[in-house]
Amino acid sequence: MIRIASEEDAAAIHAIYAPSVTDGVATFETELPGVAAMRERIRARLQHYPWLVWDEAGEVLAYAYAGRFRERAAYDWIAETSIYVRGDAHRRGIARRLYGVLLDTMQLQGINQAVGVITLPGTVSVAMHETMGFTAAGVWRQCGYKLGHWWDVGVWQKELQAPAATPAPVIPFPQLGNSPKLHALLT
Fold it and tell me: Each residue of 117-133: pLDDT tens digit?
């Protein structure tokens, strides 16, 4: 089932995230944040953006969230997305389904564009984003140094809805509340 993350999910989310910090390049974070810091990230993010988890029988197998793309107000209608899947839950279609619900939720908020930032070559992540309708938007060359190497980062972009000539403010995620449309997405 897909549900909204809670602070109580921090330990499970931290465990899913840890290998990407210590052994991978899906994130350029190099120090484990700790469960308390993860709890705070969840709390803070949910004040404006969705953070969703894939839960099976009380176990979090994956999570996806959106976040601010840039600090300037003119960027309010674009958000950066992230998704992480527990190692033993790969290749089950969880990422595509969870990511799809995240993107649909962002659209309900009035967000027009989603951006995925992928450490290259990132073959699996690139394929998933392109399957979800993202298109390549550019590459930042040798912008991150981790695990003894310089890494390129690719940017993929997806239009969630056409931008309005005069856009309404983006709806903060908590204000979606018990929206029937949000409820229908969370299954």
Answer: 999 999 999 999 999 99
